[in-house]
């Protein structure tokens, strides 16, 4: 990455977002391959996307078969695109008899073994009912092979942490009688472990793999296609127009742009490198320190996993775990996602006012009418997806029609065709024809004809078709590591259900939280906490800490599943609603993306800005205070999630505006600026005053505001006394 001088600051030149994403996201960092092997891999990736695209629209295969085919593709590809040793991951290996196509024979053998072992269970599915509980030798051998290759595939694509957890739990299941104290259990034979993990739906072929194969893949593919046809660019340009003219303009553009782009990406790192390639250089030119510019973008970008309608893979898992519709998850996520971006916005605003930064000039802003005129068609696929989803159809069918709309808009490039396609889909939804052949066949014929016409019409048309094909390849590329991680999490969940260790851990956490609560109650004034309230608070605190620590070495999806399996029962015993417990774990798992020492999104931003990675991570974590505070708020005030039982608008408004007040106070305290520079004692008062706003109810919110009132009055007086507040440097 090169630099050049602009306005006294080093401005980062344009960089390839995909290359940066591959650099900082190990899950899509494929090793370079010889041309022939690269074509084979690309063909398999394209076939995987086509398989999921077809089944989403024309009907899923039987559950076990669908999951088995998905896993066969995923694991087989991992051994082709991830080297066994880190030092071999970045170099092209020459062809040799022991390395055909530049890939070691052992990797080819592991790929074949993974595919065969994955497809074995679907192959014997007719007899599976007679095998469960009484596996024969072949079953045990095939199950053992799959477990071994799955752990190795996960190590290569995700890292060592998740396989180590799985191995440790399998050892715990086998050596149960030798475990100490409360962890003692009868134990299981190896055939019993394999039986539970391989032949039942409680293990590898469980919910986690099913959700990735049924929902996640389709939405990842939709996000890639929507970005390719220009929807991401439209969002970023609109964000520039809306927020760019205000103080610290590029930083606010980063927030709005990341919020909009996050609607279709569902990935923190993809969001960071795509939006950041535009906003980080602009922030640096305006005068923001490099580490702060990178931190703003990376923190805002972590909202990609929590911003509807795409969100991250964990959101789709909630559908299965909670037994609710995806539209319910989307509604529940709206306000907490807004709070995350609001928290980042407040700190950026205070920092910009403190520094005295200007906004972008009219010449630096995009023309809104030209932006809309050139890109309005790209909104149609997102509108189609939401229309189908909220009409009561399955999430994967909504993704199918969203992907189809992306292809029509991207290849056709015709406003008339785009509007006609959208009108046809609206009519099909209204008449209930969306899944009927009388509608599907004409649409399929139009799609095939459009692709053929575009390919034959001109070189530009062929380029558009090729770009759609490449998007299918890249979409599958994003989903490979998630599939391996989900299958490995199946091992972890399977051992937990086999041994019952989850309930034992839950009991231990509750006991520890109760002891911590008792110690605090002994020194606090009476009435501040009840014993149960103190236990709940410390249980939430311990759960949050474990989520962040676990998320530092394990993908968000895996963190969510593990913690939900262990923590959700604990929170449920303390009266927390299931959807609240799931969202609490989900949000803290995502927070790990900007939590040092493994803040991958922050490090990607730091590389783009040429900043110190650790300093960037620390600043990003500070900017993410909204995401750290909000889970506690909606736990104590579940009305914020809208869809909880007993919802009232009064509770919603009190909880939401109380949370916003608390975020403003904390943002000002961390920024050392509100309406004017803040003194040390004023910052301390604001931090203490923000705490009551977490508690539900109007009285506690009013108490917090009353505590902060003296500081606000002093700020108003200081502002009036000195309208032109002297600018001070950012920390």
UniProtKB/TrEMBL annotation:
The chain crosses the membrane at residues 33-55, 67-84, 105-125, 137-153, 160-183, 203-226, 238-263, 325-348, 379-403, 415-434, 439-456, 476-498, 505-528, 534-554, 561-588, 594-611, 623-646, 652-673, 685-708. It comes from the Bacteria. It comes from Alsobacter soli. It is a multi-pass membrane protein. GO terms for cellular component: plasma membrane. Keywords: Cell inner membrane, Cell membrane, Membrane, Transmembrane, Transmembrane helix, Transport. Residues 146-414, 418-644 form the TRAP C4-dicarboxylate transport system permease DctM subunit domain. It is found in: Cell inner membrane. This is C4-dicarboxylate ABC transporter permease. Part of the tripartite ATP-independent periplasmic (TRAP) transport system. Pfam families: DctM. GO terms for molecular function: transmembrane transporter activity. Its main location: membrane. The keyword Cell inner membrane applies.
